[in-house]
Amino acid sequence: MAKRLTAQAWIDFALAALAREGFEALKADVLARRLGVSRGSFYWHFDDIETFHARVIRQWRKVATEAIIADVELREAPDQRLDVLLRHAFGDGAALEVGMRAWADNNATAAHALRQVDRRRRTYIEKLLRELGMPAPLAAVRTTVLYWAYLGAAVSHYRLSGPNLDEIVAQLMCFARA
Q1: Which distant-in-sequence residues (6+ apart) come within 8 Å of 57 by Cβ?
Q2: Residue 84 has pLDDT above 70, yes or no
């Protein structure tokens, strides 16, 4: 019996492929082959590759930004929220972030979404810094530095954990409070 995939299974697999292999893997025939199904399964769920890509991008935005912000917002105190955000940023694997940024270099739709996500993230970081009592001009500058640190860590392919993560987060928290 042939395996039946949901549209969400295709999208989740595509995100994993983007993180592992890059945007070149986001083709119906490549994904179908790796999933062990026919391309017909792909076209059962998606009218065309552009529709599929739009759904993949939407899911990336959800998991890489909105779900993290929702998790951070579960904390009451601004310093707790910033701590959790930094742990996500510097402790989670960044392969998907790197894959998305490479895709954005080659795809206008992905580039547009990436600009929106960068803006959303930076606005959120700045909001957290303002909640910690930082004046707006300083919060804007510190947001830029923190975000650049995150991007640098992402492209370094180095994942922090344990005491290393604790030390980086502690230092960044000092930077955010100064």
Answers
A1: 109, 110, 113
A2: yes
C-alpha to C-alpha distance for 81 and 152, rounded to whole angstroms: 22
Q: Are residues 88 and 71 in contact, defined by beta-carbon separation less than 8 angstroms? A: yes
pLDDT higher than threshold 60 for residue 1 = no
What ranges do the domains of the chain cover? 7-177
Long-range contact list for 108-114, CB < 8 A, 24+ apart? Answer: 109/50, 109/53, 109/54, 109/57, 110/23, 110/53, 110/57, 113/57, 113/60, 113/61
Could you give the CA distance from residue 160 to residue 164 in angstroms, rounded to a whole number? 6
Question: What CATH fold (topology level) applies to the domain 7-177?
Answer: Tetracycline Repressor; domain 2 (1.10.357)
Determine the Cα–Cα distance for residues 81 and 166; give it in Å rounded to an integer. 15
